[in-house]
Amino acid sequence: xxxxxxxxxxxxxxxxxxxxxxxxxxxxxxxxxxxxxxxxxxxxxxxxxxxxxxxxxxxxxxxxxxxxxxxxxxxxxxxxxxxxxxxxxxxxxxxxxxxxxxxxxxxxxxxxxxxxxxxxxxxxxxxxxxxxxxxxxxxxxxxxxxxxxxxxxxxxxxxxxxxxxxxxxxxxxxxxxxxxxxxxxxxxxxxxxxxxxxxxxxxxxxxxxxxxxxxxxxxxxxxxxxxxxxxxxxxxxxxxxxxxxxxxxxxxxxxxxxxxxxxxxxxxxxxxxxxx
Length: 276
Fold this sequence. Notes:
This protein is of the alpha/beta class and about 280 residues long. The protein has helices at about 20-30, 45-55, 75-100, 145-155, 175-185, 230-245, 260-265; strands at about 5-10, 35-40, 60, 70, 105, 115-120, 120-125, 130-135, 140-145, 160, 165, 170-175, 190-195, 215, 250-255, 270-275. It has one domain: 3-Layer(aba) Sandwich (Carbamate kinase), CATH 3.40.1160.
């Protein structure tokens, strides 16, 4: 394998309009060039479709601060594991293997790769009222099994990771993939965290793609939260956590195009860089 580059953590969004084959080819080419990479993938849209087919349609809740998240009861968690850990994770591993990349697919539960606290209660706004939800299986990644990831990377594997994580009480918990990717980048002291989405980056006036914000000073990331719409808020939060904890740069980039990773590394998208 060629000389290794700095560590790169790539989060692939769950939108079905992303160019999955182009993403896989680009990552494979970089892997063959010696890039040291960890891939984290989502799959929310596919999960929603299968949940509908199984008669347990998705529910979403809005926190008092305006963040939207998936309502995760036990049945939803089981569907989540089936789609993310089974269908989607192994589909990505299969793609990479076909391109000559020795990929290994793991969930955050495996080897306690991602560990965190299950929320005892979840606050939500329902019909204009604040309510507490107690039977929810959600949490936040607080610990990353760095020795496991480092061992895989040192042996030349490409780790392909997906939620859920595992709680300190050994329960599977749904975690936000973007923030899990951010914690992984922090734990590995990554040079770059790249988040591929179905838009060119953070848009000042969503969905007008001509309003792309190209550069954000690292110290001002949280000031851009009001600009972010919907799930993009979680991505901006993850970016803020990453750059504040020492990750060199975070890039929001378009996952619908050819060579999306190379283009992002060349400066396309929204770039948040500490050195800037």
